[in-house]
Amino acid sequence: MKNIVLFLAIILLFDSCYSYKKLEFGSNDYLIGEKYEIKVGNRKSEKVTIKEVTDSTIVVIQRKNEIILQKSMITEAKLMKISPGKTILVSVATLGLVIVVAGIISFTGGNGPGLTFGVN
Questions:
Q1: Rg (Cα) of the chain, in Å, rounded?
Q2: Percent of the chain beyond pLDDT 90?
Q3: Of 65, 72, 77, 84, whose CB has the highest number of CB atoms within 10 Å?
């Protein structure tokens, strides 16, 4: 049980929620250093960081690999922005869960089967 409290506390520390702003098709609004979710052709969307932008290509970093993409191949692009409202809401909910689990652990002594109603 104590491991669960520690796990939830770690989640609370590294928690952040993103919102996505969809870019218009063919847009040249890519910002260097920003994180995007990009879809190329029929593949699934991938999270990337923009490293360099030219007229016809963008250089992205995906999982520590540098990739050059043709802008014409990108079928969908969304700018990832941290959402303060979602982050605060999830952090408060996670903190509440940590408090409840810690309370249950302290109530049961932390080393028993827990509450046993009607069992002798």
A1: 22
A2: 13
A3: 77
What CATH number does the domain containing 32 carry?
2.30.30.100
Instruction: Give the domain range for residue 98.
Output: 1-17+83-110
- Residue 116 falls within a domain, yes or no? no
Sheet with 57-62, strands from edge to edge, namely 18-22, 74-82, 35-40, 46-53, 57-62, 65-70
Q: Which range has the top average pLDDT, 10-14, 18-22, 43-47, 88-92?
A: 43-47
Amino acid at 25: F
115 is a domain residue = no
Q: Where are the alpha helices (DSSP H) in the chain?
A: 2-13, 84-108
